[in-house]
């Protein structure tokens, strides 16, 4: 046990930064097209600006309004150099018209009010995005464009730094597939959701014998247990995702994110000292309700105003399921092949669950603590 504790401590030391990387680096770019005029705002996380641009002048770990205000001109030039608009007839020169600070579910954001005038009325808007491209290849810009035909959404950055937005109503199929991609992307970058699922999957290829674990000799019980766990989680998070998106349920984001972290801790601890037994599916359903509220927060940040709600909600849900099933399909065969080894029982299950529980505990403390991330000037 002492050796296990030491290994966990070493793992946590190496994963300390990962605890702060729960949410991927995103910015939110909202534009409105009205004839030849384009206006809107660009929300950029202060934590990202500190890493890529530098705002904390006195190095005390808190970004104050005075520090941001002193760098506004440089910030405007930096941001506008990473964003380009055009309408086919030529470029649409951008300028920053105002500044504000807003709070998203994951912290404080600098808000740049934008305005551009294109050479002619916009029939198709070309957007080129390069923010933090050299610093963080995983950074994405979540774009929402309101126009006479409705609202269009896109994700910019990485392999897709450019997009053309047609100023007409998006089709149902286009909306569906766009949000399927978003759902898959969210699972791929959602470390807490991935670790929660892995905690649920780890013991499925084993069975309890006394106080220890033994390899499960038959494949069928493993598959049925996996189906039950995934179905319970899917049903639960689909329910709360839909209710929250429709505005029926609303909880503070700090509470939701803290509860998700707690679910990671509890699922991992149950692998070390099983207490749920036959109630594991019920517990998974309960945890899934919380995770669904987290998914709804992401879907809300993507922006649904004016988008066809049904295909957007269905597409995002399908994308989440595709991401989950891909994880299950990749994990279970490997776990089945290794289930008879000491490595799997002592390291993959025991040490892996201990590390996941400890990392979840760090998230829980971080998210539940009342921290003033935006102190007064």
Provide a brief overview of the structure.
The chain is α+β, with helices and mostly antiparallel strands. The protein has helices at residues 2-14, 46-52, 65-70, 72-80, 172-189, 191-201, 219-245, 253-272, 280-302, 309-338, 342-368; strands spanning 26-34, 37-45, 83-86, 94-104, 107-117, 124-129, 140-147, 150-156, 162-166, 206-209, 212-215. Strand 10 and strand 11 (212-215) form a beta hairpin.
Record keyword descriptors for this entry:
single chain, 377 residues, alpha+beta, 2 domains, disordered N terminus, disordered C terminus
Descriptive report:
With 377 residues, the protein is α+β, with helices and mostly antiparallel strands. The chain has two domains: 144 residues, no CATH class; 189 residues. It has eleven helices and eleven strands. The strands form three sheets. It has a six-stranded mixed beta sheet. It has a three-stranded antiparallel beta sheet with strand order 3-6-9, with no helix packed on it. A two-stranded antiparallel sheet has the order 10-11. A hairpin with a 2-residue loop joins strand 4 and strand 5. Helix 6 crosses helix 10, helix 6 runs antiparallel to helix 11 and helix 7 crosses helix 9. The chain is elongated. The termini are far apart.
**Total of DSSP H or I helical runs spanning 4+ residues:** 11
Number of domains: 2
Q: For the terminal residues, how far apart are their CA atoms?
A: 49 Å
What structural class do the secondary elements suggest? alpha+beta
For the sheet with most strands, the description reads: 6 strands, mixed
Give the H and E element order. HEEHHHEEEEEEEHHEEHHHHH
Trace the largest sheet across and list its strands.
Answer: 4-5-2-1-7-8
Percent range of helical residues: 40-55%
User: Mind telling me the C-alpha Rg?
Assistant: 23 Å
Overall residue-averaged pLDDT value:
83
Shape call: elongated
Please report which band the strand proportion falls in: under 5%, 5-15%, 15-25%, 25-35%, 35-45% or over 45%.
Answer: 15-25%
Q: Could you list the spans in which at least 5 consecutive residues all have pLDDT below 50?
A: 1-22, 370-377
Q: What is the tally of beta strands?
A: 11
């Amino acid at each position: 046990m002492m050796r296990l504790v030491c290994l966990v401590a070493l793992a946590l030391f190496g994963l300390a930064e990962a605890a702060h990387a729960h949410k991927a680096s995103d910015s939110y770019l909202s534009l409105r097209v009205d004839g030849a005029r384009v206006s809107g705002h660009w929300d950029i996380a202060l934590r990202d600006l500190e890493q890529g641009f530098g705002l904390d002048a006195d190095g005390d770990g808190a970004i104050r309004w005075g520090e941001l205000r002193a760098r506004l001109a440089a910030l405007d030039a930096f941001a506008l150099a990473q964003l380009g608009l055009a309408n086919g007839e030529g470029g649409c020169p951008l300028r920053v018209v105002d500044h504000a600070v807003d709070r998203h579910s994951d912290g404080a954001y600098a808000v740049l009010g934008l305005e551009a005038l294109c050479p002619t009325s916009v029939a198709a808007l070309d957007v080129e995005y390069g923010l933090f491209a050299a610093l963080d290849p995983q950074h994405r810009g979540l774009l929402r464009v309101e126009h006479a035909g409705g609202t269009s959404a896109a994700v910019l950055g990485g392999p897709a730094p450019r997009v053309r937005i047609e100023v007409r109503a998006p089709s149902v199929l286009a909306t569906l597939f766009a949000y399927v991609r978003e759902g898959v992307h969210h699972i791929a970058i959602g470390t807490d959701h991935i670790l929660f699922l892995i905690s649920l999957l780890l013991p499925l290829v084993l069975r309890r014998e006394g106080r220890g674990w033994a390899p499960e000799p038959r494949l069928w019980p493993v598959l049925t247990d996996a189906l039950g766990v995934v179905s319970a989680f899917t049903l639960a998070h689909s329910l709360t995702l839909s209710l929250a998106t429709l505005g029926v349920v609303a909880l503070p984001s700090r509470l939701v994110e803290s509860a998700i972290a707690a679910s990671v801790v509890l699922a991992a601890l149950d692998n070390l000292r099983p207490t749920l037994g036959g109630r594991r599916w019920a517990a998974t359903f309960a945890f899934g309700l919380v995770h669904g509220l987290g998914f709804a927060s992401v879907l809300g940040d993507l922006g649904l105003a004016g988008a066809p709600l049904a295909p957007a909600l269905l597409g995002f849900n399908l994308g989440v399921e595709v991401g989950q099933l891909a994880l299950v399909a990749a994990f279970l065969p490997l776990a089945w092949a290794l289930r008879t080894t000491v490595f799997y029982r002592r390291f993959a299950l025991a040490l892996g669950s201990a590390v996941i529980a400890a990392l979840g505990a760090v998230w829980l403390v971080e998210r539940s603590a009342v921290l003033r991330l935006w102190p007064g000037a």
